[in-house]
Design goal:
The complex is a heterodimer of chains A (482) and B (301).
Chain A (H helix, E strand, L loop, with lengths): L11 H9 L2 H23 L3 H17 L1 H14 L3 E5 L2 H14 L4 E4 L3 H5 L2 H7 L3 E4 L2 H9 L15 H12 L7 H18 L2 E4 L3 E3 L4 E6 L3 H7 L3 E7 L3 E2 L2 H15 L7 E5 L13 E7 L3 H6 L13 H5 L1 H6 L10 H7 L22 H5 L6 H14 L5 H14 L2 H21 L12 H4 L12 H18 L1
Parallel strand pairs in A: 1-10, 2-3, 2-4, 4-7, 5-8, 7-10
Antiparallel strand pairs in A: 5-6, 6-9
Helix pairs in contact in A: 2-12, 3-12, 9-10, 16-18
Chain B lengths: L3 H12 L10 E4 L3 H5 L2 H13 L3 E3 L9 H5 L3 H20 L5 E4 L2 H14 L4 H11 L2 E3 H8 L8 E8 L3 H6 L4 H8 L2 E5 L15 H4 L1 H18 L3 E4 L2 H14 L4 E4 H5 L3 E3 L12 E3 L4 H8 L2
Parallel strand pairs in B: 1-2, 1-3, 3-4, 5-6, 5-7, 7-8
Antiparallel strand pairs in B: 9-10
Helix pairs in contact in B: 1-7, 5-7, 6-7, 8-10, 12-13
The chains are: A alpha/beta (482), B alpha/beta (301).
Chain lengths: 482, 301
């Protein structure tokens, strides 16, 4: 395995600067996000996309309102089907449970389906510490595991790499002959993964959704690795966030459609693997044991704190692809398992340690493109605004910024102060502009962040209100003269 | 003060905004602080556009700022004072019938006062209702011209290549897009060019431009690159904040294109200076800095 050059624990500004300075990253992001977003727009346009989004929102809101009952229903149906269900409040409980299961079943090697929740609780690290080999089997995840990197996109984990980078990696790590032919590259990965599937004792996946009425775990893939992991090994373990439960099969198919169209622009994904329990007597295949771990890790608190709307998320990645900030910096700059607008909302709410997580709600211009792309209509800008307000209300904003804002509000709070401040800014800015001939090219203090790359116009010599007053006076004079 | 229940009834009525039994005649101008102090010519152009349509314009001089910068940065307590002030200035004008509508030459300030005041006054039903009364008759300039007055041809002409940038709050909070485009489509002599990523954020984002300056600049450069590729002489838009950001980058980069507020373009204040083809580096767009007051005298004969 290669050593990663990506360090999520660097300060936020350093992570951003590294990302902005990486030209290959820029190329890779631009290619991929534009393609993925184009596919989403076409696929949602091909059906009544608005109606689909509204239905999805209603379904998810209903499911969240009935979360306790649905989870109990899911548990009792899964149990009736022969599965074991566990409830984990925090990340380490997931890992403890998982390792217990593995030890009991004498597991040496686990194969994994791409799962964000397993990244959230750092399953791979925990397994490695317990001496169990974990192999990622989604092509993208397989690549970043080879490279020793964390995923940088909810859906396309290796979006930060160009095909050229991947070819280099495969040549080095898998003895692939020099080529950029995607078929050859996939073939090399496939050969390697086939061995892993057949020799693994345990399959691990998340759940794209789980059906309460039948006790069915659903995983959506395009490579078929999901079915391999859920049916070939002796033991199959599912780790799912509690918000992934939906009431009925009909709801599951609604979400399947919304997810496929929004994530990859497909009518439906190539594979949908549904598992309701372990292998029954007479079944041709399937795991001997099925374990389902339900994870909270801050989700219930999100509901309680007014951020429950974020739990509607189906992890399609559409908000990342349209986000102009994500397009510039990619996923690693966020420093969290979850990046982009949804990542900026949930990273600080989930019980994860993310370096400089408080900076994330501010990593947005509130342009709203994410809200329009979201298949569940999550009002992401509103949630970001609320998080910022919480941050300030809790006294966590910088003292200087707070003083500046109080001063701003005070200045704007009366006409006299406003006009005085205007006059002051007028002289000040015109002096600065005079020095640099026209527009301001250099400003002091925090405003230097603007003029490092941008000019600023001087204030007008005569404000609108002055011109308006002058004009009124003139009109009166004219009227009198008539 | 009206009892809360009556206010809420009133709120329901006015939330079904933009239905005028008779065409509005008197309009209060919310000029916005940036236009007032930095771009008065934009405010004057807006007044001219409205008066040409026979609208009587009021300028309540008590007005300052809607509080958007503080709100977006998370300072709700600070914003509330400014928002109450705004409501105290404009709501009596609307309720007493002194004005029929409010117009502002800014999508983001209108989004603030019509959408986000509702969030801000979540726990203050009285101000929430009063803010809604104002919001019900508040329009962004192009929205007012096209949707309320039904005008798209305002007699504008422009010689040059013209692009349009859709500002985020205007487009996605207010849903105003077809209106400015309809007005621009009627500009005589303009060669309309399409701008790739016209609906992508320019990277301004208020305090974002300072707090996340490197990302903000990178987003802005994407915008200016697309502008260069479009070969536009001028990119029209409806928000002076985006205009400040885009022009800040264009002038720093020595580019030929300029961002202009749509109001200035529509009153024919924008011209592309003649230039030899080889020296594209020099600034080619000049905005007529004639004090609007002089043109007013001319108009009045």
């Amino acid at each position: 395995m290669a050593t990663s050059t990506i360090d999520l624990h660097l300060p936020y500004t350093t992570r951003v600067a590294k990302a902005l300075g990486n030209r290959h990253l820029h190329t890779a992001l631009e290619r991929a996000t534009e393609r993925m977003d184009g596919q989403r727009v076409a696929a949602m346009g091909a059906v009544e996309g608005e109606r689909l989004r509204t239905q999805m929102r209603q379904m998810k809101e209903h499911a969240l309102r009935h979360l306790p009952e649905l989870l109990e229903q899911l548990e009792s149906n899964l149990t009736a089907n022969g599965a074991q269900v566990y409830w984990a409040k925090e990340a380490d409980e997931v890992n403890r449970t998982l390792i217990q299961i593995a030890r009991k079943a004498n597991v040496q090697k686990a194969v994994k389906v791409k799962s964000m929740v397993s990244e959230e609780v750092h399953v791979n690290d925990a397994l490695a510490q317990a001496g169990i080999t974990a192999v990622e089997t989604d092509l993208g995840e397989f690549i970043i595991q080879l490279a020793g990197e964390p995923p940088s996109h909810i859906l396309a984990p290796v979006i930060h790499r160009r095909a050229e980078d991947i070819a280099d990696l495969f040549q080095k790590e898998l003895d692939m002959p020099p080529t950029l032919d995607p078929q050859v590259m996939c073939g090399v990965a496939r050969t390697r993964l086939r061995r892993e599937f057949l020799s693994a004792d345990m399959g691990i996946s998340g759940a794209n959704f789980a059906v309460a009425e039948t006790g069915t775990i659903c995983i959506v893939t395009n490579e078929g690795n999901g079915r391999m992991c859920s049916s070939l090994p002796r033991v199959y373990v599912v780790i799912m966030g509690i918000e992934k439960v939906v009431p009925t099969l009909e709801d599951a198919f609604l979400q399947y459609q919304a997810l496929s169209r929004s994530a990859t622009g497909q009518q439906c994904s190539v594979y949908l693997s549904m598992t309701s329990g372990p292998r029954r007597p007479g079944d041709a295949d399937g795991p001997d044991e099925l374990h389902v771990i339900l994870l909270d890790n801050g989700r219930v608190d999100m509901l309680a704190q007014g951020y429950g709307e974020a739990l509607c998320c189906v992890r399609c990645g559409a908000c990342l692809n349209v986000c102009p900030v994500y397009r510039e910096i990619g996923g690693h700059a966020y420093g969290s398992t979850y990046s982009g607008p949804i990542g900026s909302v949930i990273s600080g709410l989930l019980h994860n340690s993310v370096t400089d997580v408080a900076a994330l709600p501010y990593a947005s211009t509130l342009c709203g493109a994410c809200r329009d792309a979201c298949p569940v209509k999550i009002d992401l800008p509103r949630l970001l605004l609320d998080l910022r307000a919480d941050h300030v209300a809790e006294g966590d904003a910088g003292r200087i910024e707070h003083l500046a804002m109080q001063n701003f509000a005070w200045m704007m709070g009366s006409r006299a102060r406003y006009e005085a401040a205007g006059a002051l800014a007028n002289s000040g800015s015109n002096v600065l502009a005079w020095f640099s001939g026209g527009s301001i090219k250099s400003m002091p203090g925090p405003f230097a962040a603007w003029t490092d790359t941008r000019n600023f116009p001087p204030f007008a010599r005569h404000s609108f209100r002055e011109q308006w007053r002058a004009r009124k006076a003139r009109t009166k004079r004219i009227t009198r003269e008539e | 003060m009206l009892p809360a229940r009556q206010l809420l009834r009133l709120l329901e009525i006015v939330m079904q905004k933009k239905q005028f039994a008779t065409p509005p005649k008197r309009v209060a101008l919310f000029v916005t602080c940036m236009v007032d102090m930095i771009y008065p010519e934009v405010g004057m152009a807006a007044v001219e556009l409205l008066e040409r349509q026979g609208i009587e314009v009021f300028f309540p001089a008590e007005q300052t700022c809607c509080g958007q910068p503080a709100f977006n940065a998370g300072y709700r307590a600070e914003t509330q004072g400014l928002a109450r002030r705004y409501v105290d200035i404009f709501e009596p004008l609307v309720r007493s019938g002194q004005v029929d509508a409010l117009v502002a030459p800014s999508g983001s300030c209108v989004a603030m006062t019509t959408h986000f005041y509702d969030v801000l006054f979540e726990n203050d039903p009285t101000y929430r209702a009063r803010a809604a009364i104002v919001a019900g008759v508040t329009f962004e300039l192009t929205e007012f011209l096209v949707d309320v007055l039904g005008v798209t041809d305002v007699g504008a002409h422009f010689r040059g290549k013209l692009a349009y940038h859709a500002s985020c709050h205007l487009l996605r909070e207010l849903g105003v897009d077809r209106q400015p485009r309809a007005l621009l489509a009627q500009v005589e002599g303009a060669e309309q060019v399409s701008l790739v990523g016209a609906e992508e954020c320019c990277g301004f984002g208020g305090l974002f431009a300072l707090k996340n300056a490197p990302i903000s600049s990178a987003m802005g450069r994407r915008k200016t690159q697309n502008l260069a590729a479009s070969e536009a002489d001028v990119v029209a838009l409806c928000d002076v904040s985006c205009m400040t950001h885009i022009n800040g980058l264009l002038t720093r980069q020595g580019q030929h294109c300029r961002a202009v507020h749509i109001a200035q373009l529509l009153v024919n204040e924008v011209e592309v200076a003649d230039q030899p083809h080889s020296t594209a580096e020099t600034t080619a767009t000049t905005v007529d800095k004639t004090p609007p007051s002089r043109r007013w005298q001319d108009l009045r004969g």
